[in-house]
Write a structure and sequence with these properties.
The complex is a heterodimer of chains A (about 475) and B (about 120). Chain A is built from 20 helices and 6 strands. Chain A has about 475 residues and is α/β, with parallel strands linked by helices. In chain A, strands 3-2-1-4-5-6 form a 6-stranded parallel β-sheet. In chain A, strand 2, helix 17 and strand 3 form a beta-alpha-beta unit. The longest helix of chain A is centred in the N-terminal third of the chain and has 29 residues. Chain A is elongated, with a radius of gyration of 26 Å. Chain A starts with a helix and ends with a helix. Chain B is mainly α and about 120 residues long. Chain B has 2 domains: about 40 residues; about 80 residues. Helices cover about 70% and strands about 0% of the residues of chain B. Chain B is built from 6 helices and no strands. In chain B, helix 1 crosses helix 2, helix 3 runs antiparallel to helix 5 and helix 4 packs antiparallel against helix 5. Chain B starts with 5 loop residues before the first helix and ends with a helix. The chains are: A alpha/beta (about 475), B mainly alpha (about 120). Chains A and B meet through helix 2, helix 3, helix 4, helix 5 and helix 9 of A and helix 1, helix 2, helix 3, helix 4 and helix 5 of B.
Chain lengths: ~475, ~120
């Protein structure tokens, strides 16, 4: 072995490369905080990852056969990952992130299993390795299966509405206790592989049952939580494998995912616990009977009338929601806003933090349709503006505009920060039908005196408004 | 060459590598909190996707573990793990890049009125 080869294979050289890689990760993340530098930030982080992978491949312990196996894994992963990322539609982005997150968690669980087998099942002699391995197995398995369920729900493969599981909380606690108990038995000296598989299976069922009862609208919180979980499990695997890159990168993700989760839950005025312990479905019965009291008359309107109303407005605020994503209406909305701007009308977009299925979901969709990001206003910036807004156009949003959150203390969403659409001079709501939103509660906004409803597919309705505008 | 090895030297001095690893773990958590808490809502989805790509670092775990793996099943498990990790990394960074490349500034009015 030449001196140069020995140098590159030295564990100190590899660790030095890792240190450079961390710096790139952190720099990249810092640049992700501004729209102008975000693209660059992502690329910097990707370079960090490439450096970390190449440095790890220099590991002198690898022989030709192992390189071949690694090549198979890398090639298969690339062949699956690249087309998936290239072809996914912007509207399907949340479930794609869920899926990528899931395979990450799956990788951690598999590595933990292989390490357990490699140690001959003997983890009790070396708890430095054993405890993090058991932790990685539990969290990795939960993350893999939970993410798959989140994917299934968002993709429509599984019902998006909350699924009730009898005695769900008790079952989940029992499953977690089973996984931890099996782990403890292994750490105390058992070498049974069956016990290790029990850890993985119990955690897998837990991942399934924990996410199944959660409604589609809470998926941002779920995906973010699982993202943090995968990061933590990666960090644990790093402790077990004595790999600093895994520890640092995994933990940074664990921290970021926790912050995101917290912010999202806050925006919905719910605790992370209440989201994870079941959707609105569990709390709704108390108000379901009260639906009749808001049932006033609904005024429906036509695209032509909406176009006239808009044409004589000075400021129009568009409030997009999940309905816009479902109808793929973002490009039509962009066309409409262009037509309005041509007439000298100020158009702004009001983005509620939890509109859609992921934080920033609406931003991504509207960005795809070339809406400039400085036209997208966050809740706190736009709320004072509704008072001087002539027309608010609510496109497929519901619960985030419900004035009950401000006015009715017994409403299940009371206290949730909302967009104060009801303060604008006129409100147009584009909706397929009078069905209630995810929370299953009536929205008095629809019955308001200033409100008119435009029923139908959002994309078709918006396109019609645009063509009517052209004739004015 | 020992001067390169700040981390491993530290491990030798403090006795237990586990404590060194825990120290790194805690510091990384604080770095994560500090760097990320400044991200505006607009970038939350790309951020989630970007951090998602970074935890694809588990790929390295597969690369390290396969170096000492013996037996067909162990190797098979790790090849699958490496493939999963690669999907996470490659897919994650690409998808983030796609999302971010859509965030543009308001175009110049001239470019906007392309039909005139």
């Amino acid at each position: 072995m030449s001196v140069a080869t020995a140098f590159f294979q030295d564990v100190n050289f590899i660790n030095a490369c890792y240190i450079v890689a961390f710096s790139l990760f952190i720099t990249g993340l810092a640049k992700l905080t501004s729209p102008t530098t975000a693209v660059q930030g992502n690329k910097i982080a990707a370079w960090g990852m490439l450096l970390a992978v190449v440095a790890t491949l220099l590991n002198s312990g690898l022989d030709g056969g192992e390189f071949a196996l690694i090549a198979i894994g890398l090639i298969v992963g690339t062949l699956v990952g690249v087309p998936a990322a290239r072809n996914v539609k912007m509207t399907a982005m949340p479930q794609m992130v869920a899926l990528f997150n899931g395979v990450g968690g799956g990788a951690v669980a598999l590595i933990a299993w292989a390490e357990f087998r490699q140690q001959g099942g003997n983890l009790s002699d070396n708890l430095d390795v054993g405890i993090p391995l058991v932790f990685a197995a539990i969290i990795g398995s939960i993350s893999f299966w939970g993410s798959n369920i989140a994917f299934g729900k968002l993709q429509g493969l599984i019902s998006g509405s909350p699924v009730k599981i009898p005695a769900g909380l008790f079952v989940n606690i029992a499953l977690l206790a089973t996984a931890i108990g099996a782990g403890a038995a292994i750490l105390l000296g058992s070498t049974s592989e069956g016990l290790f598989l029990l850890i993985l299976v119990a955690a897998a069922i837990l991942g399934n049952l924990a996410v199944l009862p959660i409604g589609g609208a809470d998926m941002p919180v779920v995906i973010s939580t699982l993202n943090a979980f995968t990061g933590l499990s990666a960090a644990a695997a790093g402790v077990a494998l004595d790999n600093y890159a895994l520890i640092v990168a995994g933990m940074i993700v664990g921290a970021s995912g926790t912050i995101l989760t917290d912010q999202m839950a806050k925006a919905m005025n719910r605790s992370i616990g209440s989201v994870l312990l079941g959707g609105f479905g569990g709390e709704a019965p108390a108000v379901e009977g009260g639906g009749g009291e808001t049932g006033g008359t609904v005024r429906s309107t036509s695209a032509a009338d909406v176009a006239i109303l808009l044409a004589y407005a000075r400021q129009v605020v568009v409030v997009p929601g999940y309905g816009m994503a479902v109808a793929q209406a973002q490009h039509a909305v962009r066309e409409m806003s262009k037509a309005l701007e041509k007439k000298g009308i100020e158009v702004k977009f009001a983005i509620h933090p939890v509109a859609g299925r992921m934080p920033g979901h609406m931003n991504v969709l509207l960005a795809e349709a070339d809406v400039p990001y400085d036209q997208l206003k966050e809740m706190d910036d736009i709320n004072p503006e509704f008072g001087r807004t002539d027309v608010s156009l609510v496109i497929g949003a519901n619960d985030v505009t419900n004035p009950d959150a401000r006015l009715k203390p017994d409403s299940p969403i009371y206290g949730m920060p909302i967009l104060n659409v009801d303060e604008s001079k006129q409100v147009i709501v584009l909706k397929r039908s009078m069905a209630s939103g995810f929370a299953g509660i009536e929205n008095p906004l629809f019955y308001g005196e200033k409100t008119q409803m435009l029923f139908g597919d959002a994309k078709a309705s918006v396109a019609e408004i645009t063509s009517e505008l052209g004739g004015l | 060459m020992q001067t390169h090895a700040a981390i491993t030297t530290l491990a030798a001095d403090t006795g237990s590598p586990l404590l060194t690893e825990l120290a790194i773990l805690i510091l990384a958590a604080f770095v994560g909190f500090q760097v990320i808490s400044k991200v505006p809502n607009t970038l939350h989805t790309p951020l989630m996707s970007g951090t998602n790509a970074i935890h694809g670092i588990v790929l390295l775990g597969g690369l390290v573990a396969i170096a000492h793996a013996e037996g067909f099943l162990n190797q098979l498990i790790l090849v699958i793990a490496i493939a999963f990790g690669t999907i996470n990394v490659v897919g994650g960074f690409l998808v983030t890049d796609r999302m971010l490349s859509m965030f543009k500034r308001k175009p110049e009015p001239v470019a906007e009125e392309s039909d005139t």
